[in-house]
From TrEMBL:
<comment type="similarity">
    <text>Belongs to the FKBP-type PPIase family.</text>
</comment>
<keyword id="KW-0413">Isomerase</keyword>
<dbReference type="InterPro" id="IPR001179">
    <property type="entry name" value="PPIase_FKBP_dom"/>
</dbReference>
<dbReference type="Pfam" id="PF00254">
    <property type="entry name" value="FKBP_C"/>
</dbReference>
<keyword id="KW-0697">Rotamase</keyword>
<protein>
    <recommendedName>
        <fullName>peptidylprolyl isomerase</fullName>
        <ecNumber>5.2.1.8</ecNumber>
    </recommendedName>
</protein>
<dbReference type="GO" id="GO:0003755">
    <property type="term" value="F:peptidyl-prolyl cis-trans isomerase activity"/>
</dbReference>
<dbReference type="GO" id="GO:0006457">
    <property type="term" value="P:protein folding"/>
</dbReference>
<dbReference type="Pfam" id="PF01346">
    <property type="entry name" value="FKBP_N"/>
</dbReference>
<keyword id="KW-0732">Signal</keyword>
<dbReference type="InterPro" id="IPR000774">
    <property type="entry name" value="PPIase_FKBP_N"/>
</dbReference>
<feature type="domain" description="PPIase FKBP-type">
    <location>
        <begin position="64"/>
        <end position="154"/>
    </location>
</feature>
<feature type="signal peptide">
    <location>
        <begin position="1"/>
        <end position="22"/>
    </location>
</feature>
<dbReference type="InterPro" id="IPR046357">
    <property type="entry name" value="PPIase_dom_sf"/>
</dbReference>
Length: 233
């Protein structure tokens, strides 16, 4: 089955599943223990996520906007192993789909993500394939774990609140804070030269993590320039 057909298959199943009364006992215990782990955020819906890589985008996808993504999924019982029921990474190419074309857990998570984000998603059955499951790969009432990254948003976007405030450093990682401090002390010419250097590197063949950090630095440089301009007015 091709990647686009596979996603359409997932989306069709998500629309047809019975709403599960509860995730099975093993999945419930997995999610309970997982919620206490460092970096894991639990939302009101029951969806859990952990940010593996912070993105560089400034917008979320609209619910019907196609997004180019990489993902892989596994049963909660297989978490920590190399056993996946589906993986675009293993196929060697990303796939495109919109938040409203997939299971509820993905729909919610994608609308919180920005370009460059790479998250781990821990999804109860109620937000996955429910009581029906998706035989033979996914059993009924199963908790699932996905790794997902949004490479690009190819449709309408919803502005996102800044995650890293270059003035107060609120929401900034240590890595981002170090970069901000370094470039706030530099001249406008030096910041422009660094931006030009990064723009030239983005087209080079390198890892997704390195590209995401390059784009993040470019976004931070633009934010620093805006902050400096406001101070000078």
């Amino acid at each position: 089955m091709g990647s686009s057909a596979r996603i359409a298959w997932f989306g069709a199943l998500s629309a047809l599943v019975d709403v599960s009364l509860a995730t099975d006992a093993a999945g419930t215990e997995f999610l309970r223990a997982n919620s206490a782990k460092e970096g894991v955020v639990t939302l009101e819906s029951g969806l859990q996520y952990k940010i593996l890589r912070r993105g560089y985008g400034d917008s979320h996808p609209a619910v019907d906007s196609s997004c180019e993504c990489h993902y892989q999924g596994q049963m909660a019982k297989d978490y920590g192993t190399d056993v996946f029921f589906d993986s675009s990474y293993q196929r060697g190419s990303p796939t495109s789909f919109a938040p409203n074309q997939v299971i509820k857990g993905w729909t919610e998570a994608m609308q919180l993500m920005v370009e460059g984000d790479k998250w781990e998603l821990f999804i109860p059955a109620e937000l996955g394939y429910g009581a029906r499951g998706s035989p033979p790969a996914i059993g009924p009432d199963s908790a699932l774990v996905f790794t997902m990254e949004i490479i690009s948003i190819d449709g309408a976007k919803v502005p996102a609140s800044p995650r890293c405030n270059v003035g107060t450093l609120e929401g900034c990682s240590d890595k981002e804070a170090e970069f901000i401090a370094k470039h706030q002390a530099r001249s406008a010419e030096e910041r422009a030269a660094e931006a030009k250097r990064l723009e030239g590197l983005i087209g080079a063949r390198t890892t997704p993590d390195k590209i995401a950090w390059m784009r993040s630095r470019l976004a931070l440089l633009r934010a620093i320039v805006k902050a400096v301009e406001k101070q000078e007015l």
